[in-house]
Known about the structure:
The complex is a heterodimer of chains A (527) and B (446).
Chain A: H1 16-19, H2 36-39, H3 75-86, H4 109-115, H5 118-121, H6 133-150, E1 154-156, H7 162-179, E2 186-190, H8 196-203, E3 207-211, H9 221-227, E4 232-238, H10 250-259, E5 263-267, H11 280-283, E6 287-289, E7 310-312, E8 324-328, E9 331-335, H12 358-394, E10 399-400, E11 411-414, H13 425-434, E12 441-442, E13 452-454, H14 462-480, H15 484-488, H16 501-506, H17 522-526
Parallel strand pairs in A: 2-3, 2-4, 4-5, 5-6
Antiparallel strand pairs in A: 1-7, 6-7, 8-9, 10-11, 11-13, 12-13
Chain B: H1 8-18, H2 48-59, H3 83-89, H4 92-95, H5 107-124, E1 128-129, H6 136-151, E2 155-158, H7 164-176, E3 180-183, E4 202-208, H8 219-228, E5 232-237, E6 256-260, E7 276-280, E8 293-297, E9 303-307, H9 314-317, H10 330-366, E10 372-374, E11 382-387, H11 391-400, E12 407-408, H12 409-412, E13 421-425, H13 432-445
Parallel strand pairs in B: 2-3, 2-4, 4-5, 5-6
Antiparallel strand pairs in B: 1-7, 6-7, 8-9, 10-11, 11-13, 12-13
Helix pairs in contact in B: 3-10, 5-10, 6-7, 10-13
Amino acid sequence: MMNQNGRPTRPEAANAAETVGTFTGNAALDIEEPLIFEVGTNEATGVDLPDPAPVTSRLGGHARKTAVNLPGLTEPETMRHYVRLSRQNYAIDLGLYPLGSCTMKHNPRLNEKMARVPGFADIHPLQPLATVPGAIELMAELSHWLMEMTGMAAVALSPKAGAHGELCGMMAIKAALKARGETRSKVLVPESAHGTNPATAALLGYSVVSIPARADGTVDVEAVRERLDEDVAAIMLTNPNTCGLFERDIVEMAEAVHAVGAYFYGDGANFNAIMGKVRPGDLGIDAMHINLHKTFSTPHGGGGPGAGPVVLSDKLAAYAPLPYLRMEAGGAVLVEHPSDTEAEAHPFGRMTAFHGQMGMYVRALSYMMSHGEDGLRQAAEDAVLSANYVKARLADVMTVAYPERPSMHEVLFKDDFLDGTGVSTLDFAKAMIDEGFHPMTMYFPLVVHGAMLVEPTESESRASLDLFIATLRDLAMAASNGQVERFKQAPQHAPRRRLDETRAARSPSLRWTPPEPRSIEPAEAAE
Amino acid sequence: MRYLPLTDTDRADMLAAIGVDAIDDLFVDIPADKRVDGALDLPPHRSELGVEQALKRMAMKNVSADSVPFFVGAGAYKHHVPATVDHLIQRSEFLTSYTPYQPEVSQGTLQVLFEFQTQVAELTGMEVANASMYDGSTATAEAVLMANRVTKRRKAVLAGGLHPHYRDVVRTVVDMADDKLVCLEADPLGTEDVIAAIDEETACVVVQTPSFYGHLIDLKPIAEAAHAKGALLVAVFTEVVALAAIEPPGAQGADIVVGEGQSIGNPLTFGGPYVGLFATRQKFLRQMPGRLCGETVDADGQRGFVLTLSTREQHIRRDKATSNICTNSGLCALAFSIHATLLGGAGLTKLAALNHAQAVMLVERLDTVRGVEVLNDTFFNEVTIRVDRNAEGVVDDLAGRGILAGVPVSRLLPKSGHDDLIVLAVTECVSDDDIETLATALSEVL
């Protein structure tokens, strides 16, 4: 049986040669695209360059002895290659992208336009500072917005992504402890944390102590107190947490953490829910990274680049890494070296070459200025409203993991509603693909069985939310009505059906290699 | 507000559907006395025109590379990026997609990553490359940590030709992990003896070629010496175009090759976002940091791609992961891959030759300027000159004349005794006239 894409609906019947419904293997607008290595040649090029002047080489004995073996394509071929590939991706601009804790909101194109203005895009990080005052001004302005929204004393702009920001914040904590003459060995991390939290703590040599969640999905301050002692360097807590809940004991937790001389690291991945509603600095947080590529709409780009500025409390501000901005009467000054620092500053080092993700700073500031103070608060409220609306409309057909508390910007479901149906969380997610939606975050956080974490964001219209809700309702009913094949065979309408991940990991093929020349064995030839 | 689709009617209906009276009923878990009371000290929302005008006013205060004779390099390079690259990376499906965790609807990004990994492996002369790191400096730090895992040793030796920022980034990570580090003295002449610093405790020796000062370094004897002591050679580059002109590090015995990929496909943007390249030998695959894309088949037997070997990564292994990296530089890797495809082997080779030829012309011209000494015997597109007065003053004077004349070494190494050195880079964007303008101006201020 073939579906409307001309592909079989049952994998057992699959055989590459039999699945092709058209001569080309294409299906109208879905056009298969080979690898550049299969269509390009070393000689072809899409760039016209002048001939180099005849000079005597100064490469010494270091000149390349072999040709550079890279396939080239002319400009029209290049354009088609990448446009065809792009059409095999889901994207925010195509539809609702409910990946929990990823904040897949609209990416305004004004941001892109501004990042490409030559005065930002075409300036070098090491040209004389007197030739880039506007760049410093932009960084200072962004810093002001971040500090004001978080209620913190300082900001380290340079970290390149969320995990890099975590590393920066935890390094500041380690440096502050060292300055006190202390070496502590443990970091507390709740079970529901992102994997980057324990990975970051381990990178700095800390052992990770896990904190279980209580029945309502949040961390009990008592569970923290039980694990706190003078050997704990910090707690790393995401708030709102990855169950989509606000950690309501946070103030007591911060007091307990500070009472033993430890620091409070806040993972700001979910800051979108609380912009303009509460300031982390007012809750007792000492360091927190802000994912500009989540909360402040810089594009995810298929996996980055991100940006992870870290806001710091006055206790940690002195340890901010180089470079940082010092506010002076005449404006901000970029401090690049230990020898340029003020007496009270003790930067712990440097996170990256140059000054961080300027391109992302421009985009984020463009977003902040567009929203303004009022718009950012409205965005947080709409994000929270949308998540709770999805939760309310699905609560009777799916299993809300923690129904006791209001959700923040995302809602967590568990797979109880699929019990006995033969449909798994994975199957359910893949069926969403056929319906034109990107799946939600699956099997994370690890604290509930078959987790499905849905974050609609503030970018969805009522109609979009209602279609999403109706679709999930239909899928949940279908699962309980025994329509198992609809799930097991999914996706059937995507550019690819389910991929064999085990095979990919068992014998990794991580680069293209030329096919072996086929030699015809006598026995084969005789057939 | 133009980015928020919900209307007040929608909001009221949705609150009713949820069964609460007001939006703040959903924020009850935030301690009441901690909630923001009133407005923050920030301006209200603004029109698109208003934001554009405000940001452009800042941008116009900066001197952009295209507007002047431009010789600034030292880890970031002004190259021409074809219009096709920037158009394609702004395709919605590339720009606004997430990390390709759902391969059935992410084949576009995944195939690009597979092609990118192959391109990087080929250029570096290595067997496998990952799907990118943040930038060259963090890739270098990750390489040092990886070498520690592979060798089960904890001491890295950094050559004096390594970019000072890269050295600082490595030192920051290594200090925090309480590992050992030997940083050799800055090596503007390109004559240091790295081999003497390698001993039985050494996990890796980190050598940049072309060096920060532009010298081409013979990696082979260093690789042999490192291997003889059970250490790895980490080869670093900041100018990836050089790899089309010089013998690739992989062919010279490097075990890990890392560097900055910005030059291909990515604008300067004041230092980021850039794209870290990371390649190594197949036998070290399981110790690699970062994402990897691999080939497989789907349920119909069709070729497809997935992220693979994720048991190395933080979202699976948590505190046992090889790195904490999650988001990398996907879109910059795409820009790199598109530009590399437009160039092809022949185009990239020609681009490298063009860069080198322009640099040779600069050096030949500077040889005639009194007060300037070129320190390099060998170079690709970047050289270090010694001037007979304070280098920072010279660069500032030339900036005043509308010439961005390279990077004074003291910008990166203040109070190091190298106050008379300037690193100059020359790319295909530098014209013969620019060279003449620079040389004339130098002869006037020296």
